[in-house]
Amino acid sequence: MNLKKLLFCLLFILSGSIMAQEQAPENQKTSTTVVSKFAFKTGNLEELKNIDYDLLRAAFEGNAADARISVKISFEGEAPEVADGQLTQFVIEMKGRSGNLEKIIHKLDTRLKKLVAEME
């Protein structure tokens, strides 16, 4: 009789612990991270000339194609001798979708080269 009670209790405890280990798949949630903004700020013209756009591509590579993004490049440098009308500060900001990142980079690079040429 004691053996039957012992086996019953043992099976009861084991079945409860086995059921507690099971997790229903609908309770599992996945999370995603979306990078929406990238900002680059410098006071050095050489850094502006040598921006690595691969870092920009890597920052947005996990985004969905329709995710809204913003890329901002700022220059705040003071030249020792500034002539009247000489450009010393600017901000370029491009907005769009992750799927259009290559177009954004191309426009950004074109405008940046023009501004850097004016500053030299």
Structure description:
There is one protein chain. With 120 residues, the protein is an alpha+beta fold. The chain has a domain at 37-119. Helices cover 43% and strands 20% of the residues. The protein has a 3-stranded mixed β-sheet with strand order 1-2-3. The mean pLDDT is 81.
- Let me know the largest β-sheet: 3 strands, mixed
- Count the strands? 3
Silhouette: rod-shaped
Strand order of the largest sheet: 1-2-3
Which percent bin holds the helix content?
A: 40-55%
Structural class: alpha+beta
What's the gyration radius in Å? 29 Å
Q: What is the H/E string? A: HEHHEEH
How would the blueprint of this fold be written?
Layout: H1 2-21, E1 37-42, H2 45-49, H3 53-60, E2 68-76, E3 89-97, H4 101-119
Parallel strand pairs: 1-2
Antiparallel strand pairs: 2-3
Question: How would you sum up this structure in a few lines?
Answer:
By secondary structure, the chain is α+β, with helices and mostly antiparallel strands. Helices cover 43% and strands 20% of the residues.
Main features:
single chain; 120 residues; alpha+beta; three-stranded mixed sheet; 4 helices; 43% helix; 20% strand
